[in-house]
Design goal:
With 236 residues, the protein is mostly helical. The chain contains ten helices and two strands. Helix content is 68%, strand content 4%. Pfam families: DnaB_2 (PF07261). InterPro entries: DnaB/C_C, DnaD, DnaD-like_sf.
Length: 236
């Protein structure tokens, strides 16, 4: 339930309206005027002027500020000939203000989570590359690693796979690893899982080819043995 919906169910003002008093009301004096109307919307400006030791003209000026800032509305009751002042718009402004503040806080938390995730990724890469790079990483090297994450959108696990590939080939350098990553992307390999699947497929294909070769050798060796046993090789 919003503060606007709770209006008049409890005469005690919420702490939130005091916390954001200068965001809602034009001046502190106008808040005092609004507060009297909050207690009794049928009060006359002259009565409030007497309470606050102000002139009626000064109170009317504050009322104009409140209506201009959409914090107060005034309605004339033709049946009684009296003015009635509605203080609910102040609560509507408070609800809007709190909603905007909460939304901004959510966005900030999301940005912080993304930033933390990015920092974690670059930290993983630095920890992995540092011992493998001859002479360690330079600031320029670290900047390039960051670009692989932010500009090229390479997954951190894919970069680590490329590092392992380069280490196996004993060619650990950023240009070589960059070439591996771009070659993988050209061939549709964009995740670390894709690398594993591609390796499994390649190994299965090699195993099949080796099996075919072995079978063919055995077959021909058997045929040669039979030819010799039956004397076909000595046939005239």
């Amino acid at each position: 339930m919003t503060y606007y919906e709770q209006f008049k169910k409890n005469i005690v003002l919420p702490q939130a309206i005091l916390t954001h008093i200068l965001d809602i009301f034009p001046t502190l004096v106008s808040f005092n005027v609004w507060l009297y109307f909050y207690g009794n919307e049928s009060l006359a400006p002259s009565q409030i002027a007497a309470f606050l030791q102000m002139t009626t003209a000064e109170v009317n000026q504050e009322i104009n500020l409140l209506t201009d800032s959409e914090t107060l509305t005034a309605e004339f009751d033709e049946s009684t000939g009296e003015m009635h002042f509605d203080t609910r718009p102040a609560f509507a402004k408070l609800d809007h203000l709190l909603a905007a503040t909460n939304n901004q806080a959510s966005i900030s938390d999301s940005e912080l989570d993304n930033e933390t995730e990015t920092v974690s990724d670059i930290a993983r890469l630095i920890a992995a590359f540092e011992p493998e790079m001859p002479g360690g990483l330079t600031p320029i090297n670290i900047e390039e690693l960051q670009k692989w994450l932010s500009d090229d959108k390479f997954e951190v696990d894919l970069i680590l796979q490329a590092l392992r590939e380069a280490a196996l080939n004993r060619k650990v350098s950023l240009p070589y690893i960059r070439a591996i990553l771009r070659n993988w992307r050209t061939n549709g390999i964009v995740t670390a899982r894709d690398v594993a699947d591609n390796r499994e497929t390649r190994e299965m294909r090699q195993a099949e080819q080796q099996s075919d070769t072995t079978l063919s050798d055995d077959y021909f060796n058997s045929v040669d043995s039979l030819r010799k046993a039956w004397g076909y090789d000595n046939a005239q």
